[in-house]
Amino acid sequence: MTQTFSKVTAIRGMNDAIPGPSARWEQLEGIVRDWLHAYGYRNMRTPILEHTRLFTRGIGEVTDIVEKEMYSFTDSLNGESLTMRPEFTAGMVRAAIEHNLLYDRAQRVYAMGPVFRHERPQRGRYRQFHQIDVEALGMAGPDIDAEMIVMAARLWKLLGITDVRLEINSLGQAAERAAHREALIAHLELHKAVLDEDGLRRMYTNPLRVLDTKNPAMQEMANTAPKLFDFLGEESRTHFDAVCARLDDAGIQYQLNTRMVRGLDYYNLTVFEWITDSLGAQATICGGGRYDGLIELLGGKPAPAVGFAIGMERLIDLWGQMQPETTAPAECDVYIVQQGDEAQRRAAVLAESLRDEGISVVVHAGSGSFKSQFKRADASAASIAVILAGDELAQGVASVKMLRQSAAPEEAMQQQVPLDSLVAFLKDKV
Ligand code: ATP
Ligand code: MG
Prior knowledge:
Blueprint: H1 21-37, E1 42-43, E2 49-51, H2 52-59, H3 64-69, E3 72-74, E4 81-84, H4 89-98, E5 107-116, E6 128-137, H5 143-159, E7 165-170, H6 174-190, H7 197-202, H8 207-210, H9 219-223, H10 234-249, E8 255-256, E9 268-275, E10 284-290, H11 294-297, E11 305-311, H12 312-322, E12 334-339, H13 341-356, E13 361-363, H14 370-379, E14 384-389, H15 390-394, E15 397-402, H16 409-412, E16 415-418, H17 422-429
Parallel strand pairs: 1-5, 7-8, 12-13, 12-14
Antiparallel strand pairs: 2-4, 3-4, 5-6, 6-11, 7-9, 9-10, 10-11, 14-15, 15-16
Helix pairs in contact: 1-5, 2-4, 5-10
The structure holds adenosine-5'-triphosphate (ATP) and magnesium ion.
């Protein structure tokens, strides 16, 4: 009797990156690390799982993320509520406080990795996605606010991405938001009839976020609402103007978007988003801002902070559209074709000697006809095939064949090379 097993598939909204497409991910990660190093940012790695209360406190109870997007569960061992990180900032700040990183200096730190949100999957919106998260802890700005924006612009340039625009806003300080809040609630009460379920629920708990709606029926109400920007005092305006002046210095264009709120509750002063017109509805590739209250809110000594996060899936999608030519690297430099037990063993030893010289090598595994082995060698995109087999091997020679078009015509033919000079010969060719 034979048993059949059903396939187990990935969870909806959680993607694999298979060999081929994954090359772009690796390439991006390399570029990103160099780019961050150019600004003195250092890597931090925090756990994917954190206490749920870190996020309810750090992101805010009345936000999309905390209200409906978190993957939370109860740890069956001790009954604690745990959550898969839906973003990096709260965990980064927790770690900075826990390890006392800010006691005598400011910190420029970054992290890169998966985050989790229970959203409806569609292009550019997944349940597991990846962020590049960049945080400047302990610096009050506006110089550092501007540096962060300029730095994002440099990444777009490094990747050859042109179709992005910058929107910025200022959320002022708590007192300014309180004054605006009263005027805003009055406006919302006046337009109660057009508010949707989220709008009605948030009207008194988080009225600013009612304006962040994507509901078309609420746009008119949101457009005519009192603007927080008009409630900014002199200090907040000076901060904002100073950021703008530095963007002008860097030749970066921006647009003031007085309706931009951003996801976290504790943003203040500068907030910004980089938006593209090439990705359809999921248009924001990078969002960030200042969150001077968060470190204290999470139990640290009060200190200012500013940061941003880039959605890597959206960035890769956009990058691929703008630079479709970026080619995947070859699997290896040298592919060794071999036949027979003796040849297979010699191939394994030769491959190790080549790797000692920094050459990447694949030895054909198992057996197979020369034809099928050469097919694999070609598919590997190796520049050289080495053939070990039969009489040649017995005479102490191998055949070498250049596989790429760039090879001179006479080299493209097979040539014989003595085994004892093979490593030196190949070192010269790759
Ligand atoms: P959106 O308005 O698109 O839901 P957001 O304000 O929730 O975005 P942030 O919390 O600021 O997003 O996250 C930073 C970046 O992460 C976004 O600008 C976006 O590029 C990316 N991002 C957010 N949610 C998702 C998701 N579900 N799938 C893929 N990328 C995402
Ligand atoms: Mg969202």
